């Protein structure tokens, strides 16, 4: 029954520290995300959304409860198995781009394929195709400092999707961009979701950005306060 969901959290809690310093970051989360959904995650600082994303990204495991990815309980996997899950099924996009400054756009996008052992000719072709799809044809040899913020984020998205992940986890992907570049990036993410069926879970503080998604999950004090479809998709 769990296999119908791409992601499923059942009674997930996360506790940091012990005794008087103990912090209950998640208080018993129940959540399901299906294939092809585009979900916004919102909430004030300290609400639990970063902890939630760390668990989805297999960077952390629940203190109790279960997190299942395609029906597999992630908390029962070894550290190496979780690393393989991240490498083969997850893509990550961050607010600060996290590109390697001395590498070209093409080399940055090739990196995940190098880690997978993809042959040179194949990874070069795949990276070029994805950069072209991001509107960066002719910019392949540019280093990050030679690119605008919006272009850098497009390189970061290309790097995240070049491995054809099952899920893209985006943490404030437009937080460093102006309004025009924000719209460009959100149109790219919407296209990836709509045309390619890519499942996206995105943290944002901005209602205008969340409006691009199909569903919005609001965290408050370590719990899900609201989980509802966006009006345009209801």
TrEMBL record:
One GO cellular component, as annotated: plasma membrane
Sorted UniProt keywords: ATP-binding, Nucleotide-binding, Transport
Domain ABC transporter: 7-234
Keyword RNA-binding: no
Molecular function per GO: ATP binding; ATP hydrolysis activity; transmembrane transporter activity
Pfam families named among the record's database cross-references: ABC_tran (PF00005)
Top-level taxonomic group: Bacteria
Protein family membership: Belongs to the ABC transporter superfamily. Macrolide exporter (TC 3.A.1.122) family.
PANTHER family named among the record's database cross-references: ABC TRANSPORTER ABCH.1, IMPORT ATP-BINDING PROTEIN
UniProt protein name: ABC transporter ATP-binding protein
Native species: Methylocaldum marinum
